[in-house]
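Hi all, a correction to my earlier message: I attached the wrong file for IS1380 family transposase. Here's the right sequence:
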Amino acid sequence: MSVHAVPPFSFDFLPSRPIEIEVSSSPLSSDAGLLPIRQFDQTIRLTEQFTAALHDLRNPSLTRQSLLIMVRQRIFGILADYEDQNDHDTLRSDPIFKLLAGRLPDGRNLASQPTLSRFENAVSIADLWRLRDLLADLFIQSFKAPPHHLTFDIDAFDDPTHGQQQLTMFHGYYEQHQYLPIAISCAENDMVLLVGLRHGTCSAFLGADNDLRYLARRLRAVWPDVQIHVRGDSGFGVPLMYDVCQELRLSYTFGIGMNARLKTMSDDLLNEALKQYNETGQPQRSFLLVEYQADSWPASQPVVIKVEVHAQGTNRRAVVTNRPGCSVLPQAIYDEYTMRGESENRNKELKTELLADRLSDHRFLANFFRLYLHTAALNLLVRLRQTVVQSDPTSAELKLPADFPTEAIDAPQRKQFFNRRRERDPLGGGFAGTWRTRLIKVAAEVITRARRVIIRLSGSWPYLEQYLQISRAVNPPPRPLPSSSG
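and the right structure:
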């Protein structure tokens, strides 16, 4: 951010000499790491496509800030930990944010908080429908070749509210006033391809059936033969979701709460596991497939029950599924279901690291729009991570047979796989907070010359090499010079 003029002063805690504070007259910013992200956005055109989905009702002769400028202010601000409109009362004069928006550092200031507030509150229902289409379009664009199989993780997360926002309600379980957004992400590439904002006391599965119908229709129009698998926790383990998955020819695995009947069905397996644990002292893990029908279900469903015995005690969990082979490999079905924990990290990034839990506009549609802004910021980062990610750990490093498929790695080795990948590639596999501390938050001097703009970084910055590597990865190759005819 730009440095404001303050009187010089000094600190005396260093015994050998005083520490004097001076003010630089050079344009400075603390967010120079946004520049390679902006270069990447120039390639995939995310903010440009986002803006194209919005309809501008303003009189062009009376406007000073374009929709594209305000979209870039908000999305790049969210990435840099500026989640509120108020932040831009200062950022509007920041030289880096001006460059991100397409203006020179000494050019006109960007949009202020009141302008951004009017921008967000002007959104219409039609705009939100187009943004839903945009998320699907961006997801399709992220694949270089048509995928044969996709895994959708569907989840809801609490979004606390602290004012008089429309449709915010008190939820007894979370003990707070909140919204309850829904998000669907793809396990194959980590992108969020659908979000929805809902009132705070709705059921977790509210509207999820129609969301799946929409996605199946959109994606199969492009990839007719793609196979789609859906995973969700017990909040989505209801007959409505089983029925819509069967209607759409989707396979599914949903969590289901352990009850007295399921415990009775698995008591023998638990007793056997306890016996083995007492004899060997080794943790035991066993699986059972049963046909189960709750009183409220119109038909029975295959249910995989996991039984664990270890030093901490016993643990039983269950999932309902229609996946082929569940009777042959129930453990593989359950272990594949637990991989949805990685997709829950996307919800964590969206909610707590990119601060989508700050939906503080009064109008419900404006808060829905803000959710799209935060989702777009996350997807921009996800796409960038895919571009700069280094090679995965080899089978030899994990002590596995040559060319062993990642999908077949069991749970303990899979955890080792992800830990090794993050160790060797802290940014490609890092969370949004890691990107902020290691790339985005870097001080820079911004120098405007007649023919170029210079961004001067510190040579002692510990993450300078990572910055340079990412910048090289997102820069398009130079255009070849035209060949001269002989």
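Sorry for the mix-up. The first strand starts at residue 9 and ends at 11.
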